[in-house]
Amino acid sequence: MSSTGIDKLELGITEDINLGSVQGHFANANPPPPSMAATPPPANGAVLGLFSFGSTTIILSLYNARASGITVPNVVVGMALFVGGAAQFTGGIIEFCRRSTFTGSVFCIYGTFWLSYASILLPGTGIAATFDGDADMLGDAIGIYLVVWSIITVMFLIVALRKNLALIAVLAILALTFLVLGIAEFTGNSAVARAGGILGVIPGFGAVYIGLADLLAADPFPPFLLPLGVIKH
Hints:
Layout: H1 3-10, E1 14-16, E2 21-23, H2 45-64, H3 76-97, H4 101-121, H5 135-160, H6 165-187, H7 190-218
Antiparallel strand pairs: 1-2
Helix pairs in contact: 2-3, 2-4, 2-7, 3-4, 5-6, 6-7
């Protein structure tokens, strides 16, 4: 045996004649781990958020519009708590997991809106009772509450100006709806309140439309697609 071969044996190195490569004693002791399959991204939480917001908004707006002569909107409390509130907030969390700051913020914020609104209507919270029957003060307080939500909606509208026309229309009319309903609370004018209710039906159905468009787009074999008026940058 050549001195080179002896040196290799002393160093603990063997030569693989077939592969023509030099390997150490432990070359095959730890084989490489199998490749991991790519984790699928989280589902689109916007669909859940849009349907939750839209359905709850439609119901409350119809009550505000005095549909079928309804003047007490408290039946919407259940929807506000579990659909507009909990379900929509969940959609926002999913959107945050998808790294979407805008949609995550929108659905979480409006989810908390519905939860806070339901708490006003729930007798057990005692919020309305603290005004001790002073309808004017309660109306002013709710008016301020609604105007602030109008301002928040305008902030989201500014960001949405470069997204799609459907979303712009929903947020613009929603901001106007909050403002009109706030004015109705300040003035106690039932006609203005009904106008706010009629206006509110539009963004409600608009949100459902966008939700359906997103749901169809997520389906690998949709029966049809709905246009959203995407703005080209």
